[in-house]
Amino acid sequence: MIGAGKAKQYANVVEKPLSKGKQEVSLSAFALLFSELVQYNQTQVDNIAELERRLEDAGYAVGARVLELLCHRDKGNRRETRLLGILSFVHSTVWKVLFGKVADSLEKGTEHEDEYMISEKELLVNRFISVPKDMGTFNCGAFAAGIVRGVLDGAGFPAVVTAHFVPVEGQLRPRTTILIKFAEEVLRREAKLG
Amino acid sequence: MAAAIYSLFIINKSGGLIFYKDYGSTGRMDTNDSLRLASLWHSMHAISQQLSPTVGCSGIELLQADTFDLHCFQSLTGTKFFVVCEPGTQHMENLLKLIYELYTDYVLKNPFYEMEMPIRCELFDINLSQATQKDRVALLGR
């Protein structure tokens, strides 16, 4: 009987207060697990684009669950319905729960109206990863991009999300930018809402 | 920035050289010589364990010569790290532990690294060059 011990305290399971969630997990344990995830997926694919897609799909599953959990836990069963609201939810609430900090920046794309960027100087999933030169522009941040896509899709903001390395002047390492390109219908709806 | 050591070697558990880096001009070696030295050290280390009068000896930790010191650290899995440095250089045990830490972080947690193969990881190189700087090593003793 699952939760039989607790049943004494709370007659009904819905009366039980929500757990706050565990605040920290071991970075080493995560890094090794993530490394294995990438290595496993590498054996299943024959090109880099496919690997990126598989990592993104793995992240999508995380994002979908995170949205559900956080809306329930932090937002009293409400979810954001406006574009900027959901973006700042991803940038602050989601990032804080997953990576222990708010993302470094959230910007609107300069060239296109439907593009937004979340930038991280050092993305947690990339902390220990050096991508070999022969893999070109491949970025394991595809996993984080997948998480973002999962959250946005679940909240009704379908988008194409990709991760890119962007060189920074005066820095040895490039930063990771997560590019969000919303579907047309999202912008149309947003315009209607005024 | 000046480095505190002449050169650094990492050899895998079967004696193959998986990483070699020299700093400055002293004790430089070409590829063949460094491979030879690595496998020679691997064998000598193994023999020293057998010959040692003390029970449970873990092999040579320090070789002192007229012109250099060689400090060696062997991890639990049999990977050996050794540095060649000026005679009497301090804090080399701590530096080797630090290099081992960098290896576990930036090499072993890198999904694109194949075990027992030569190390080519950008992040490892960056962090290593910082760790071996003279003023950084001087702080290790504290």
UniProtKB/TrEMBL annotation, chain A:
Keywords for the protein's UniProt record, in alphabetical order: Endoplasmic reticulum, ER-Golgi transport, Golgi apparatus, Transport
Gene3D superfamilies xref list: Trafficking protein particle complex subunit 3
A Pfam family annotated for this UniProt entry: TRAPP
Predominant subcellular localization, coarse grouping: endoplasmic reticulum
A GO term from the CC aspect: TRAPPI protein complex
UniProt cross-references to CDD domains, sorted A to Z: TRAPPC5_Trs31
Protein name (record): Trafficking protein particle complex subunit
Source organism of the structure: Thalictrum thalictroides (Rue-anemone)
GO annotation (BP), single: endoplasmic reticulum to Golgi vesicle-mediated transport
Signal peptide annotation: none
Subunit structure and binding partners: Part of the multisubunit TRAPP (transport protein particle) complex.
Source species, domain of life: Eukaryota
UniProt subcellular location: Endoplasmic reticulum; Golgi apparatus, cis-Golgi network
Positions of transmembrane segments: none
InterPro entries per UniProt: NO_sig/Golgi_transp_ligand-bd, TRAPP-I_su5, TRAPP_component
Record-stated family: Belongs to the TRAPP small subunits family. BET3 subfamily.
From TrEMBL, chain B:
Gene3D superfamilies attached to this UniProt entry: 3.30.450.70
SUPFAM superfamilies: SNARE-like
GO annotation terms (biological process): endoplasmic reticulum to Golgi vesicle-mediated transport
Domain of life: Eukaryota
Annotated compartments: Endoplasmic reticulum; Golgi apparatus, cis-Golgi network; Golgi apparatus
CDD domains: TRAPPC4_synbindin
Alphabetic keyword roster: Endoplasmic reticulum, ER-Golgi transport, Golgi apparatus, Transport
A Pfam family this chain is assigned to: Sybindin
Coiled coil: none
GO cellular component: endoplasmic reticulum; Golgi apparatus; TRAPP complex
Family, as annotated: Belongs to the TRAPP small subunits family. TRAPPC4 subfamily.
Assembly notes: Part of the multisubunit transport protein particle (TRAPP) complex.
Protein name (record): Trafficking protein particle complex subunit
Organism whose genome encodes this protein: Thalictrum thalictroides (Rue-anemone)
Upper taxonomic lineage: Eukaryota, Viridiplantae, Streptophyta, Embryophyta, Tracheophyta
